Amino acid sequence: MGELSKRTMALWALWLLLVPPGLFLVYQTFPPPEIDPWHLTAYVLFFVITCLMPMNINGASTYLVQWVTIAVFLKYGIFVEILISQLTMLIVLTRSRTDEPLSMRIPFNSTMFFLISCCSGLAYLAAGGQIGSLNLVHIIFYGLIFQIVSVIANQIIYYSYDRFTGSKAKFFSVDAMWDFALTLLVFPYAIALYISEAYIGIPALLLLGIPFLIMTFVMKMYNNSEQITSDLKKAGEIGHQLAERLSTDEVLDQFVIQVSKMFKADYAYVIDYRDGNLLMLRMYENQEFEKFSVPPVRYHKGIAGNVIVTNTPVIYRKKSEWKDIVTGYIPIDTESIMCTPIARNNKIEGVLLLASRKKYAFVSHQLKILDILSTYFAVSLEKAGYVQKAIAKSERCGLTKLYNYRYLDKALEKSMEKVNTGKIDNLSLVMMDIDHFKGINDKYGHQSGNDILIELARILEAEVGREGIVARYGGEEFVIMFENYSKDLALLFAESLRKKIEKHEFLLQRDLDKERSTENVHITLSIGVSTAPDDSDEPNALIRNADRALYIGAKQAGRNKVAAYVK
Predict the structure, then answer these.
(1) Confidence category of residue 429, pLDDT binned at 50, 70, 90
(2) For the chain, how big is the Rg over CA atoms in Å?
(3) CA–CA dist 520, 562 (Å, integer)
(4) Does the pLDDT value for residue 215 go beyond 80?
(5) Can you tell me the distance from the alpha carbon of 204 to that of 288, in angstroms, rounded to the nearest whole number?
(6) Where is 484: in which H helix or E strand?
(7) Residue 528 β-bridge partners
(8) H or E element in which residue 290 lies
(9) What is the mean pLDDT of residues 505-521?
């Protein structure tokens, strides 16, 4: 049996032990006075309406029902107030957004509300308060005792439960301060409601209740407006952060991280729409990127597919709304889902899907905010693509598509710094030059010479792979840079490469012939090797040493040779 099941059973056992017998005992000890059913019905109806209009305070839904429950207690006593509090509990639980199961929350909250009602009611009576009294001084003094004890008992129970379950417990939290402030705010309304109802009856509920509900509604709308303004401000900040990123990967990662944080999503996925398929680009779960692969699905399948087909964002507030739609990967504990298309130049490029383990985790105005963010994302992604192309163009050789001298110079400087700071042990340069390349150009034409350079570039890339950096240094010269390659290892690589090129057949077209016939041509390489820190600890000196080994050690020794720099 899991820990959650054990805790649920313990809570239900505690509830059975305390609440039903406790309620019977309260009824026998403190029976309610004679009750006018119409008055009580009016109270309950008004109470339910108040419960259905929560306010958002400090990021949490707050139900301002204390002013009704205090008035009910002052008029009818502990037993009726307990019943009203239990009704509060049921309404709040059905409307609250939490991932804890109702099977656990109902016994815990029912027991907690029962204990709070008993503690505050008994404190009121023990202090000398009387049910049904109209003495204003007594009502205010003893009523305030009732309400303060209620708040303190609530905090003690929550604190004790958190300590018992191992959760982070803090007695004087921000929520506790808000509870106390709201107590002082609604207490005068509760006293006014109780006294007015005692003298003029049910109309008092309308005279005091309607303005209170209107005030609550206005404050709720104001809070919603403030939340939208705050979200728009955050969206603008995220947009600026995305615009500062210079690569598409950085834009993707930053977008996923910031959107997940803003909407408090447990899971976030960026899904690419390409060639009629949906392909997972980013998986961000529990504040970490996941790398396991998810097979692609057809574009019209599942939640993401529906969003693409209809070009309409959606919100699902609980699993029952989407469980029959989903196709593809969704974590099993997901409840709420928010999904929006990502469009660029009026064309849908993909989908963003946010998910939460909580029910009702997302609200409708967030879809519009998410749409704005998706626009920022698409524009930033396009900009980053242009920047990457421009960088690639400035760092690549236009003919061979290898890195050029400018890029090699920067990379060499960074790698040499790693050597000097001890982050890597060795840095080797392998510099090579095609032997008698001018003769090839003269015999076959410059285009044929270019063909050799291009094919040689592809061979070098294949041989080096991810072990090093290949660059065209200029003309027919190429350089390979290896981190953590000793001189002996670099020489072994260079000799193996020399033999491979010597045997390789390059198919050339005779551009200078009238018939433009083809011919297999062999070339050879002269290669020089220099290594840091053995030969130098300066980037430019390392290049000069490799160049010296190439020309003095290999070229002058007869070409088609490998030579190491010797001090």
Answers:
(1) very high
(2) 38
(3) 24
(4) no
(5) 56
(6) none
(7) 431, 563
(8) strand 288-290
(9) 77
With bands split at pLDDT 50, 70 and 90, how would you rate the model's confidence at 1? very low
Spatial CA neighbour of 432 closest among 390, 482, 474, 492: 474
Torsion (CA) 384, 389, 395, 399 in degrees, nearest 10: 170
Q: Measured between alpha carbons, how far is 425 from 418 in angstroms, rounded to an integer? A: 8
Type of residue at 319: K
Running DSSP on this structure, what letter comes out for residue 396? B
What is the Cα–Cα distance from 536 to 77, expressed in whole angstroms? Answer: 92
Please state, in angstroms and as integers, the Cα–Cα distance from residue 524 to each residue in 192, 464, 503, 528, following that order.
102, 18, 9, 14
Q: Six-digit token pair at 97?
A: 């957004």
Q: Locate tokens 């609250």: which residue?
A: 96
Calpha distance 248→187 (Å, rounded): 57
Token digits for 434?
Answer: 């095609």
What predicted TM-score, i.e. pTM, was given to this entire model? 0.53
What is the pLDDT, as a whole number, of residue 222? 56
pLDDT at 461: 93
pLDDT at position 148 is 85
Closest CA to 150 of 162, 160, 158: 158
* Higher per-residue confidence, 227 vs 135: 135
CA dihedral over 182, 183, 184, 189, signed as positive or negative: positive
Q: How far apart are CA 366 and CA 79, in angstroms?
A: 43
Structural contact between residues 98 and 217, judged by C-beta atoms closer than 8 angstroms: no
Q: Are 528 and 565 in contact (CB under 8 A)?
A: yes
Over residues 392-406, the pLDDT tens digits come to 667 788 889 899 888
Residues 6+ apart with CB under 8 A from 153: 115, 116, 119, 120
CA-wise closest residue to 561 among 428, 427, 433: 433
Residue 493 CA to residue 486 CA, distance in Å, equals 11
For residue range 78-98, what is the model confidence (pLDDT) as tens digits? 999 898 888 877 877 776 655
Angstrom distance (rounded) from CA 15 to CA 32:
23
Residue 4: both structure tokens together: 């959650």
Residues in the chain, overall count = 567
Q: Cα torsion for 195, 196, 199, 204, to the nearest 10°? A: -150
For residue 172, give the nearest of 183, 182, 180 by alpha carbon: 180
DSSP string, 79-109: HHHHHHHHHHHHHHHHH---SS-HHHHHHHH
Return the number of other C-beta atoms located less than 10 Å from residue 31's C-beta: 10
Give alpha helix (H) positions in 201-332.
203-243, 248-262, 302-310
Which among 340, 385, 351, 392 is positioned nearest to 242, based on CA atoms?
Answer: 385
State how far Cα 254 lies from the chain centre.
Answer: 9
- Report d(CA 167, CA 486) in Å as an integer: 54
| pLDDT of res. 301 | 80
